[in-house]
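Q: What would this chain look like folded?
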Amino acid sequence: MADIEPPAGPVVAENPVAFDPAAAGWEPYRDEGFIGLVGPFWTRPSGDGFLYAFTAEPKHHNRRGIVQGGMLMTFADRAMGMTCWYANARQPQATVQLDVHFVDAVQIGEFVEAKCRVVRRTRALIFMSAELVVGARVVATANGVWKTLGAR
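A: My prediction, written as structure tokens:
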């Protein structure tokens, strides 16, 4: 085990701009369970829907010190799922497929936004896509499918 390196500490963005989401019109989006552990996420109205975002915190880093891919996947799933939920008259639904492509590393301190859209819908399925961005820089893309469920 002597050739295994210890995990790196978090890598903080160079010249991080102290961005205050609340001052920019974002509101915290909190939830119980898993999202409560990895959040808070942020939300703000945009057109007929909402935008979602999160600030990369030290708790989000991986062994290389950048944001863990699983955090980006969790964020994409929740942002697209919420966009889908509002677009589908707030009906119960479940993610049935999610593909994420990592394009660029996210540093600790960066503010990541999800730009989500409904691609197509059928009676039972809604197809979604998203770009995760830091400013104008695309850091990940995602595509997914949500199934509309019956009432509980």
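The mean pLDDT is 89.
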